[in-house]
Design brief:
This protein has about 325 residues and is of the alpha/beta class. The protein has helices at about 10-15, 55-65, 95-110, 140-155, 170-180, 200-210, 230-240, 255-260, 275-285, 290-305, 315-320; strands spanning about 25-35, 40, 50-55, 70-75, 115-120, 135, 135-140, 160-165, 190-195, 245-250, 270, 310. Strands 1, 2, 3, 4, 5, 8, 9, 10, 11 and 12 form a 10-stranded mixed sheet that branches. Helix 4 crosses helix 5 (about 170-180). It is globular and about 65 Å long.
């Protein structure tokens, strides 16, 4: 008999031989910023997640810096929207303003914090789609210069990394060329490489006010039934110059993440999306699950499947829970 239980006998043994560890520096916390003053507004469908005005970001940044997580991803909610999402290309727009504030605040505190700018049009367009519309359809090639300009604007505001999330064909290449021509050759790109047309995004659309006004995003986000195509998307972004590749959502697509791991030497990210977060919160608030243990198990699964980075709304809670916790499961 092979007695595999010997290495599970005590917490010390289990910790010693654990194959997977959650990297706190590998966690990225999404933040939502809007115009106004004195605003800290909880997202109704995402308990514990808030929309902030720029003047109240400091209190959140203090928590992030204290937690020591890897960085933040910035999502802006503009005051006015238009057909081309011009606010995200505006140096005085909400995302650029928030990025400048974050970087200035961290310099004032003599702290370093990686700031990633999400690059997409959906939060900024009046129609809610991730590109410009032509005859009711999202025009791929006409949308690329707008994404490239949005990325350049974010970098000029101080972003350390950009993350195009629209799933437009060629968007990574368009951004890479624009950044390089402007002299920003050292700025990395995290591609939302395999982003599926998922039902798990609902709460995010509440937070970012980004639901499409008509139709859906199935013509550009991926069909959840297609695994091989997801691997093609990941490798296409790598060829276009993406420095980090992402799978989104997380829990229902761990097979994609695991299959991608041996195919690339690039770092892999996974987005633990809003619907996944909200389901855990709802079950925890109903007393059905142990939230701390469930979140730890979920984050462990992402790293075990091959992720190097995890974008998650659980990041701050997870770090708080680790104080004095020597037996995560």
């Amino acid at each position: 008999m092979e007695r595999l239980r010997r290495l599970r006998k005590t917490p010390l043994i289990r910790d010693m031989v654990a194959e997977t560890q959650i990297k706190v520096k590998g966690l990225i916390y999404p933040i939502f910023v809007q115009w106004g003053s004195h605003i800290r507004q909880e997202v109704p469908s995402m308990p514990g997640v808030y929309r902030y005005s720029v003047d109240r970001l400091a209190e959140l940044l203090d928590q992030v810096l204290q937690a020591g997580i890897g960085g933040v991803m910035v999502f802006g909610i503009p005051e006015k929207k238009d057909e081309t999402g011009s606010d995200c290309q505006n140096p005085k727009g909400i995302a650029a303003t928030a990025i400048r504030f974050i970087k200035d605040y961290c310099r004032e505190k003599q702290k370093d914090l990686l700031v990633i700018a999400d690059i997409c049009l959906c939060e900024y367009t009046s129609h809610g789609h991730c590109g410009v519309l032509e005859q009711g359809d999202v025009a791929n090639d006409a949308s690329l210069p707008l994404h490239a300009q949005a990325a350049l604007t974010a970098v000029q505001a101080g972003a350390d990394m950009v993350a195009p999330s629209s799933m437009m064909d060629g968007v990574v290449n368009a951004i890479r060329n624009t950044l390089d021509q402007a002299g920003y050759t050292q700025i990395p790109i995290m591609g939302y490489s395999a982003k599926f047309a998922s039902s798990f995004y609902g709460p995010f659309r509440d937070a970012a006010d980004s639901a499409p006004q008509q139709g859906d995003r199935k013509s550009y986000q991926m069909d959840p039934r297609n695994g091989r195509e997801a691997l093609r998307e990941l490798l296409a972004d790598e060829q276009e110059g993406a420095d980090i590749l992402m799978v989104k959502p997380g829990l229902s697509y761990l097979d994609i993440l695991a299959k991608a791991r041996p195919l690339t030497l690039r770092p892999l990210a996974v987005y633990n999306v809003s619907g996944e977060y909200s389901m855990v919160k709802a079950a925890a608030n109903a007393g059905m699950i142990d939230e701390k243990r469930i979140v730890t198990e979920i984050l462990t699964a992402f790293f075990r499947a091959g992720a190097d980075l995890v974008i998650t709304y659980h990041a701050l809670d997870y770090v708080r829970w680790q104080e004095g916790n020597h037996e995560p499961f």
